[in-house]
Amino acid sequence: MICLFFVGDGPRDEATVPPLVRTILQIDFSTLFQPWARLHVAERRGRPGRRLRGYGRKLLYAIRAARVAQADGLVATVDRDKAPAGRLRRLREARAADRQQAPSLPTALAEAKPHAEAWLLDDPLAVREALGLPANAQIPSVRQSRYPKHTLHELWERSPRKRAHPDQREIDVLGDIARRLDEAHCRRARHTGFQGFARDVRRELGDLIRREAGVD
Fold first, then answer.
1. Which top CATH class is 1-113+193-216?
2. Measured between alpha carbons, how far is 182 from 32 in angstroms, rounded to an integer?
3. How does pLDDT run along the chain (216 residues), one tens digit per residue?
4. Which 3 state secondary structure label does DSSP give 107?
5. Taking the CB of the first residue and of the last residue of the chain, which one, N or C, has fewer CB atoms within 10 A?
6. Per-domain residue ranges of the chain
């Protein structure tokens, strides 16, 4: 089975990005995950490891870590949120720099605008099904929502699923939405960055899928 190494902002990305990639590629795989904040140079000669600064340097470190882990490919996502523009450009530059020095590791990159929850909210059918909402329930569009993360939280808090499972974690619900997501239902995929994400996943990881399927 293919193994993919994921890098993202934290547990919410860990819960949502791998199932989104499974949906895009229509194949299963094993996963490894590392938050951006935990990427650091390893301890040496008793000295504590030091954190890396800059997303370009972090991606180069993640690519090396993926190779050491013998992963078949890497998927790295960043959120726009309140961060200045340019992070995706720096990631692409780091990917290109790595490929000038080492055998290419398939590496898909994306920037979610403002965050990956916007990708989920953009499929109202997936949101309704995951939350147990009726078919006529109104789901705010990404364009209407000032902050998709809060919008999904509010929908979850008022949902039949929340009432039926009060102890369930919201992060599990996000994963369920991601597993149901259909690109064809996403009307603002270009605006949220999901269109570019899906394109890069197919471009970078497509050969792995063909190899796994035994197709030349």
1. alpha beta
2. 24
3. 899 999 999 999 999 999 999 999 999 999 999 999 888 755 444 444 556 678 899 999 999 999 999 999 999 999 988 666 789 999 999 999 999 987 889 999 999 999 999 999 999 999 999 999 999 999 999 999 989 999 999 999 999 999 999 888 999 999 999 999 999 999 999 999 999 999 999 999 988 877 776 655
4. strand
5. C
6. 1-113+193-216, 122-186
